[in-house]
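Hi all, long-time lurker, first post. I run a small reading group and we've been trying to get comfortable going from sequence to structure in the token notation. Rather than ask abstract questions, I figured I'd post a concrete chain and ask someone more experienced to write out its structure so we can walk through it together at our next meeting. Sequence below, copied exactly:
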Amino acid sequence: MILDLNHLANRPVVVGAGIAGLMTALELAPRPVVLMSATALGAEASSALAQGGMAAALGSDDSPTLHAADTRRAGDGMCDVSVVERILEKASKVIEKLERLGVAFDRMVDGSLALGLEAAHSRRRIVHAGGDATGRELVRALIAAVRAAPSITVLEGFAARRLVVEDGTVAGVVATSETGGAVLATDRIVLATGGIGGLYHDTTNPLGCFGQGLALAARAGAELADLEFVQFHPTALDGPVRPMRLVSEAVRGEGAVLIDEKGERFLADLPGGELAPRDIVAREVSRHLGRGHKVFLDTRRCLGARFSERFPAIAAFCHEAGIDPSREPIPVRPAVHYHMGGIAVDDEGRSSVPGLWACGEVASTGLHGANRLASNSLTEAAVSAEWVAHSVASATSSRIVKTPPTGLLPPPDPGVVRDIVSESLGVVRTAEGLGNAIRRLAPLAIGGSACADPAAVALMMAVSALRREESRGAHFRSDFPDQAVAPRRSRLTVERALNAAAEFDPLPLARSA
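-- Answer (accepted) --
Happy to help. Here is the structure in token form:
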């Protein structure tokens, strides 16, 4: 059944309802805008799971310059310096804006904002809400603001399946819902669809976040950047629940240490210890697990009975798993947490395809470089939303886009792609593993099955990882353990990825847009 959405034609469409999508829609108000969410608002957003908070230079001993220095250090030579400075200069202002929108950030007894410390930050600058429920509080407040805005039309339960492109320019979006499919005509689309964690078995992201936004952009011909840089959080609760529960870095910021089954602190000699950059800690934890050890996060000395008060959400899911953090260490292991790569955008969020913007984790702005500094992502999403919205509003055109005819597509399903990605694009990569992944992914990416789009995204990630013959930030090659002399950002389209894949298969690959 084809649904009629002609009454919404020619309005800007924001796809995705995490913090980036919600904020972009709010920034466009009072201009009419459509906010499209595959589920009920907030139900499948990674933002709602964020525990760590938002990074901003608010302390008397801090400054945006210090924050920028920490960000560049974590980014391992890959950050765009101008982007870093531009976003972090606005960080404190966006905290104020969010408070005006109803976000209740945690405060000290004297009324000042409570500032936490996380890995690779040189100052306490992490703002939280609800202790370890920052993302949930942000999403709650922003959803309330969106629902109260008469200019925002919310389409819940509509999943974007394909972007319509005419003469190289965006002309609409194809979507499906439980009641049928629809084609919404528009020449302005903002993708705010989150990350790629659902391509892996071990992830802290909602399993429904497996790179749909990247697939939409790639199939439309957009250029993607730095796809090889996937951040693994070193301390996800080791258990059967998926997505995995995140044991926030803020816990280590309070003094928690990593130990093994013998009670030995195996990172004691590591510079920075448990608060070293995430990529380093994740690799060390992975290595220790690979040697047959178990790994635990021990909070008994630093927090003890205060754990439940300081981290109520983490305490709750630990208790659900039969663990009392005040009396016993928490079993942990690395899990995919954030994607530094994404749709290549300029400083206003514009992609290489006219009429297409990206905001949040799905975009590659250059802020994070090769390794995201903790709690910079929510800040980036909230700050960038204003610039993206201004650019979209300024791009209003006089031409009328008619509803384009197009067929409906089946819902995507990662299926076997999860096995391939988990095996070959993990904490440590090799040329052999990446080559095998490319051979297996290419036929899936050009087929018409439900796993075609996830396979296309994974193929682009594998090609990017194979081409980066060095170890930098979150990308580690055991066959190229050293850094190259000069850092370089990677760029790729799905067509170029398929061309690269053809080198691994003796049979020519059919081309499919």
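A couple of things your group might point at:
The radius of gyration is 22 Å.
Confidence is low (pLDDT under 50) at residues 506-513.
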